[in-house]
Each structure stands twice: as C-alpha cells, then as structure tokens.
Task: inverse folding
C-alpha cells in the first residue's frame, strides 16, 4: 500500500531552507497520513512530489526524509520518499507523459493520492489519481479565488494578467473538484464556500446527497514540530520588539502597518519592528516595496530591522528577540474565508499576537485572549495596541505560555486531521464515482464544465 502526496516544498523537515505556508501545510498532511497508517498497523509507504520554485543545487533528485510517528523525542519514525520538482517536471509527474522525470514509474500498489498546498498540486494530484484509477483526497489550503481577488485589487493596472490568472486557476480548481473523492478546507467558512463551488461544478448530485465529503482541516502543528522554547523574553526597560514573519502578501494592509508603527514609535521610542520575510518573488513584491518606502518616508526606518527571508532554523533563533508577533489584514474575502499560519506559529513559540480580527482563527484566539486585537484599517488602533503591549511586557511571557498550551491542544494537528487519517487508512471513491454510477448524467453542470474548460 503506497500513498502519493502532491504538495509544495521545502517542508519544515529541511530547516536549512526558508519554509512558506504551502510547505508547512504539506508537512502537516504528510505527518497526518504517516501517523494514521502507522497507528492502523500499516507500514507507511509514502511518496511526496513537491512543487518547488527553484532547481536545487546538483539537480532535483528523490531522497528520504524522516517523519516522526509520535511526539516523543526518541519515538518511532518512518522514511518518506521526497521528490522536489520544478514546474514543468511537476506537471509531467501528474500526467506521466515525460519518462525522464524521476519516479514517473510509480509502484504498482499505489492506493490513493492526497493533493494539498495550492491549486497546481491539487490539479496535478487529480491528474495522477485519474491516471492511476485510485481515490483522491483534495485539501484546498485556502480559497484561491479570494486571493486572486486581492491580487487584482492590489494591481488594477494588470487587467490582462489578472484575467489570465483567474481563468487558469479556475481550470486547476475545477479539475480537482471533478476528480476528488473527499475534500478539506482551511476553515469552516471555506468549507461552506467549497460546498457551493462543488455544487456549481455538478458534484452535488443525487449520489452524493447523503455523502458528507467536505471537512474543515485548519492549519495545525504536531508537538514534534516545535523545538523547546528558546531564551527568556527581554526584561522591562529594554526595547520592545514586535515581529513580522513571512510574506507581505496581497491581503496585508501596508498603510495600517506603516502608520501604526510610526504613531507607536512617536509615543514610545522603545518600540521596534523585526521583519523576517518580505515580498513573494515572481508573484507579489509590491506590498513589501511600499512598506520599505513607507517606513523611510515616515521617519521610522531606524525602528525597523529587516532580515529578509531566512532558513527555518534561523527563524527559530529569531523568535526570542520579540515579545509579540504581528498580523495586519485588510478587509477581504480572503481573510474572511482563510486563516493565518503565522499566528499559530507565533503562539506555538509562546508569543501573543497583535492582529486584526477577521479570520475565523483570529476571532477564536482573540476571544481566548491570545490575540491582542486592533481595528481593521485603523493605524491609530494598531499604535494603541503596540503601546499597550509595550506597557505590559512583564505579563506577556505568561500570556504567551498560556497561548502555547492553548494552541497545542486546540490546533494539535493529529486531532484536526482525524477525518483525513481515517480516510487514508481505507481510501474510497465518492458515491458518484463508483464504477457503473453515472453521476454526471444527473447533473449537466459536470459535462458542461468538462466541455467548456477542457478538464
């Protein structure tokens, strides 16, 4: 029994590289599947094909990565075969049309495919599952159309590029929806949105009427993902540092961040911002460019330290330098349906988070007291949150440790992935895809989209 997972890399099991959210999600899915198979008494045999942005030094070759099967320091592990692929090779892996791609010849005992992380891996997983004739679980890690919407809003002059991107992603998303047998979404809100999208694609037919095949699977962590907490928070009287970690994505509010920081520093000159990350190469550099220009224009460049993108190992060494994490959303459907992996990661490191409260995740954590909220689009409100946090830094450490315990219980990846774990131990087709069942005949939308989009 072999499972193939299509996702993104690098993953956190290679801390010598910077790890972005899609790679972290792929690692969550890999561990969930491996642990579920091991607990069922099955030896996990997993192949991970991961889309990566750059060719690795020496070329992309398959190698083994070690996956912990429990959270004890010296507990059992298994080896998973990992194949990093650039874009063209990743497409070929799904279709099987290019035999020069490593591991195009898969074992004969592939039982299921799990696709995750972004639209292309989901579509590649769909192509692979169709080619092999095996069941497919599709994990839609956020809603791609809301992100395209925020991208279009941030670059209104790129009308042609925005339209092309939307059409391309719809075809990828549609291919995965038509082929999938079970689906997961990043939040309960996205789960409902996805059910609507499946209806538009024709998958809500009479065969699937009693079939609950869409689960919410929030981002979560295994205890083994989190090193022992680093050094103590700085004592009162030193600089108060907030930390931004990750990309300056299409959904973030640059004006609120710059304006709030400038007002906060004017009130309390000890306030600092540590920025680890930056723009997204070949996708969205505008927000980070505007931020850099904004802090200089506002006269607070001296209060900002920018490290650029850092390997995960170095990022872990930087967390102790801050007292709080930062997250600044602007109003968008992406935030409404999505989540923020950085908030979970900050809290897992024992750091409360100053954040807007839009996502399902931030609403829950604000209610629990571990997100320190400020008003959406309000720079003054952000400044007030920063100044208030700086005035209470003595108790922030205790709040952070409580937040860490809360996150590891509420967002422990094993509990969150229970439905995926059960399915991967006994993969099965959706009722409308069982051989001999003509689900598409019951809903003309399926045929319409296959003909119209060519998927």
Result:
């Amino acid at each position: 029994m072999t499972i193939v997972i299509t996702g993104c890399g690098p993953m956190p099991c290679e801390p010598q590289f910077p790890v972005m959210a899609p790679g972290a999600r792929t690692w969550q899915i890999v561990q969930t599947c491996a642990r579920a198979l091991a607990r069922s008494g099955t030896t996990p045999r997993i192949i991970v094909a991961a889309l990566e942005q750059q060719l690795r030094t020496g070329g992309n070759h398959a190698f083994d990565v070690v996956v912990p099967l429990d959270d004890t320091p010296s507990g059992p592990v298994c080896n998973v075969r990992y194949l990093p692929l650039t874009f063209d090779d990743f497409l070929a892996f799904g279709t099987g049309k290019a035999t020069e791609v490593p591991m195009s010849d898969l074992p004969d005992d592939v039982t299921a495919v799990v696709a995750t992380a972004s639209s292309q891996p989901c579509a590649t997983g769909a192509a692979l599952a169709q080619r092999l004739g095996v069941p497919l679980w599709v994990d839609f890690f956020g809603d791609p159309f809301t992100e395209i919407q925020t991208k279009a809003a941030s670059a209104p002059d790129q009308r042609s590029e925005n339209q092309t991107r939307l059409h391309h992603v719809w075809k990828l998303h549609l291919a995965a929806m038509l082929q999938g047998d079970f689906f997961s979404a990043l939040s309960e809100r996205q789960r409902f949105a996805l059910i609507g999208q499946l209806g538009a694609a024709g998958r809500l037919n009479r065969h699937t009427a009693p079939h609950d095949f869409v689960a919410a699977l929030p981002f979560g962590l295994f205890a083994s993902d989190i090193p022992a907490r680093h050094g103590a928070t700085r004592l009162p009287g030193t600089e108060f540092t907030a930390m931004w970690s990750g990309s300056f994505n299409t959904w973030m509010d640059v004006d609120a961040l710059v304006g709030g920081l400038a007002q906060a520093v004017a009130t309390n000159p000890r306030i600092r911002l540590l920025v680890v990350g930056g723009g997204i190469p070949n996708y969205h550099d505008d927000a980070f460019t505007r931020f850099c220009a904004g802090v200089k224009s506002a006269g607070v460049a001296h209060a900002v330290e920018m490290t650029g993108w850092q390997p995960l190992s170095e990022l872990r060494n930087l967390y102790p330098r801050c007292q709080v994490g930062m997250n600044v959303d602007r109003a968008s459907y992406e935030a409404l349906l999505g989540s923020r992996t950085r908030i979970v990661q900050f809290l897992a490191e024992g750091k409360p988070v100053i954040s807007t409260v839009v996502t399902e995740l931030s609403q829950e954590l604000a209610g629990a007291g571990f997100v320190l909220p400020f008003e959406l689009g309000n720079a003054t409100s952000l400044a007030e949150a920063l100044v208030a946090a700086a005035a209470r830094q003595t108790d922030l450490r205790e709040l952070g440790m409580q937040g860490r315990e809360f996150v590891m219980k509420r967002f422990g990846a094993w509990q969150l992935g229970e439905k995926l774990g059960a399915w991967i131990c006994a993969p099965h087709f959706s009722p409308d895809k069982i051989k001999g069942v003509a689900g598409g005949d019951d809903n003309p939308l399926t045929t319409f989209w296959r003909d119209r989009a060519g998927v």
User: Anything to note?
Assistant: The first strand starts at residue 2 and ends at 8. The domain at 226-410 is CATH 3.40.50.2000 (Rossmann fold). The chain is about 45% helix and 15% strand. The mean pLDDT is 92.
